[in-house]
Fold this sequence. Notes:
This protein is of the alpha+beta class.
Amino acid sequence: MEKPPRRPRPAEAAAKRAAAAPRCGAPTGPAAAAAGHDAFRGRPAVPFPPLTEGVLLRRYKRFLADVAVRGLGTVVAHTPNTGRMTGCSEPGRAVFLSRSGNPSRRHPWTWEMIRMDAGLVGVNTSLPNRLVRAALEQGAVPGLPAGGRVESEVRQGGSRLDLRWLPPDGEGPGCLVEVKNCTWTEGGRALFPDAPSARASRHLAELEGIARSGGGAMLCVVVQRPDAEVFSPADAVDPAWGRALRSAAAAGVRVLAFEAELSLAGAVLGRIIPLSLDP
């Protein structure tokens, strides 16, 4: 009696689709890159190195992903995202990888973006920090003029906050800025965090303390996807962070949410997204 044919596993099926299907997603090549860089002019931006397209097979061990790349087979990509990546880690989706030239890296590939139904979604949590720093240096953050000095990894209490903006003339109060990455939306609502984070709540407490003492404090949430109409705390996931956010805002911490406009050429800090902080 003949054995029934073995059904391929989901990862194997995705790999076969990657090998057989034409390239999906946005156009690539010099023309696409040039068009993307034209959009950077005069705007806070982070260019990408050349990107390679593949198909996501699986994400595992938090920081690793198997990706099927045409002509290379399956490569292991570093995943620079500590969250659950709700809504942006679906196997079978097109993903875009950068490759490091550092020979000491165990995994030279880095997962930068995934193409979801709404469009490109960025997964690299280091990108928002770089975008906000560029915006501070160019005077693109409301209320903080260009020409100031920007410092990174600033100690505050028992935490390290992402950035500190100092005024151009060196006089007057500066502003401490914490940056958060958001990749999750539901029904047009961007939500953060996608996993409980005591550290994120502690950062808000530090900002609130600064604001209550009369200093400048700001939270910048960067939404790395195009389908957010409003930003809210994800109370169902981390109610403590939602409470901390509302308390900090009431104490005078400025809260801003921005969209990161993504292309294969890079990312631009785009429009300000309205807030909805009511529970």
